[in-house]
Amino acid sequence: MLVSHNTFFHKLGGSDRLTLEASKPLHDAYAKATPEQQKDLFSRAVFNYTLGNMGFDETDAKGIKTVEGIIAKTRTARTKEQERIVNGASAKARYHLVTRGKPVPAKKPTQSGKVHFTVEQRHAVDNALASFEAETLAEQVKMLKAYLATLEV
Q1: Could you give the CA distance from residue 65 to residue 51 in angstroms, rounded to a whole number?
Q2: Which residues contact 72 (CB under 8 A, 6 or more apart)?
Q3: Dist CA 98 CA 100 (whole Å)
Q4: I want to staple 37 with a disulfide (CB 3.0 to 4.6 A). Which of 8, 33, 68, 130 is the partner?
Q5: Which of 19-33, 80-94, 105-119 has the lowest mean pLDDT?
Q6: pLDDT by residue (tens digit) across 24-65?
Q7: pTM score of the predicted model
Q8: CA-to-CA distance for 59 and 61, rounded, in angstroms?
Q9: DSSP codes, 42-57
Q10: How far is CA 9 from CA 4, 12, 65, 89, in A?
């Protein structure tokens, strides 16, 4: 089905408006939830968005198992496509459950100036983190910090 540029973006805008309206009760429940409940709601949102984005039915056992496997992987162990989908799911969950499209106040920098990292530096750190096998990014960072502490300065 071919649609014009104008029609596509008009329909997309309408869809975004409707999904934002529909997610209001979900945001309200998230805002009232305990931190543990918020983590569960966010995780389920990411899981179900990923399931739908990958074209699986919500009752498809094979699809559920596939998505569980993808989400269980570290970000560096996922394929680029899998990481794109999971990142998109997290962004949508954050948008609908947490921010509702409103900007989140930026954290104040702990240093007097902002530190900028080059693309090469970011890739180097990503590769270093990927060398540590762990379940989560936080565990990988902890392992990298422990390694860095052993270096002589």
Answers
A1: 10
A2: 135
A3: 6
A4: 33
A5: 105-119
A6: 999 999 999 999 999 999 999 999 999 999 999 999 999 999
A7: 0.65
A8: 6
A9: HHHHHHHHHHHHTT--
A10: 9, 5, 34, 21
For the chain, the structural domain boundaries read 7-99, 108-153
Identity of the amino acid at 146: A
Tell me the residue length of the chain: 153
Contact indicator for 101, 95 with CB cutoff of 8 Å: yes
Residue whose pair of structure tokens reads 């008009």 in the numeric block: 10
**Token output for 61:** 């056992």
DSSP string for 83-151 = HHHHHHHHHHHIIIIIITTPPPPPPPPSSSS-----HHHHHHHHHHHHTS--SSHHHHHHHHHHHHHTS
Q: Could you tell me which of 89, 80, 104, 9 has the C-alpha nearest to residue 43?
A: 89
d(CA 14, CA 118): 38
Amino acid occupying residue 118: T
